[in-house]
Amino acid sequence: MIGILRTADELRAWSRAARAAGQTVGLVPTLGALHAGHASLIRAARSRCHAVAVSIFVNPTQFGPNEDFARYPRTFDADCALAASVGADVVFAPSVEEMYPDGAATFVEVEGLGNRLDGASRPGHFRGVATIVAKLFAAAEADLAFFGQKDTAQVAVLRRMTADLRLATEIVVCPIVRESDGLALSSRNAYLNAEERRQAVALSRAIGVVESLAVHGQRSAATLIEAVQAVLGAEPLIRIDYIALVDWNTLEPLESATPGALFAIAAWVGATRLIDNVIF
Ligand code: AMP
Fold first, then answer.
1. What is the spatial distance between Cα 124 and Cα 121, in angstroms, rounded to a whole number?
2. Catalytic position from the list 35, 38, 125, 216
3. Which among 119, 129, 199, 263 is placed 20 to 30 Å from 139, CA to CA?
4. Which protein residues touch ligand 1 with a CB less than 6 Å away?
């Protein structure tokens, strides 16, 4: 049985005990409904840190009023078993009241960056993400925190936050884990019906088209975006949210896919919003 911590003080005490014993501490923040993508982050943490905490918290402030907070998949027992099986030492699973105590009035806003890409489509989303991650970093006092490239705009926002707040936790970015047909693993894939699941693979197919165009020297934003529009437009259940070529640090649009550029897609497949990306 993996240790389960419920309060920020318990997490801090666990972390301080590990550090007092000369250990490094790794943190893997998640919303739960763990899959092989999360497992890869936990394994990366295990390989780089002595002590590993996985946080499981469906953070209400990062969900918009018409989003899926209430129905987000919650699979706590299976999550604990998976986390333990890939080397986590503890699970931090606080209540909403623990992370947002009565009267909570403090939020972290990353200006500019926080309103681009998913931040533009989901107003307030990155404010919620930055706020909860700042709270987790404050409680965990981790040396390293592990995030997936799948949520690539999130990584850009959190890097800016840690730099601006001079936080001591270093962000480590791990590659996207995919299904055998290419679809990026996501807890939200569970919402897809069979036909939506079949069409959803167009996102990763589109990313593949972008990669091969770029390899063949086609690097202009307009060309790459048009190619993705054609791939996604062929699927009747897909509605494009955004297709963007941006600088990965600033999330500002780029004309050409230069090294360090991020090509990102967000699209609705039926009622489910999925994302994918590639970094050049
Ligand atoms: P979530 O629970 O969806 O908030 O994800 C928690 C962490 O797992 C985030 O850092 C995600 O980027 C990461 N993650 C989610 N899906 C994947 C994936 N398919 N491959 C790698 N990392 C992922």
1. 9
2. 38
3. 119
4. 30-31, 37-38, 40-41, 147-148, 150-151, 174, 176-177, 184-187
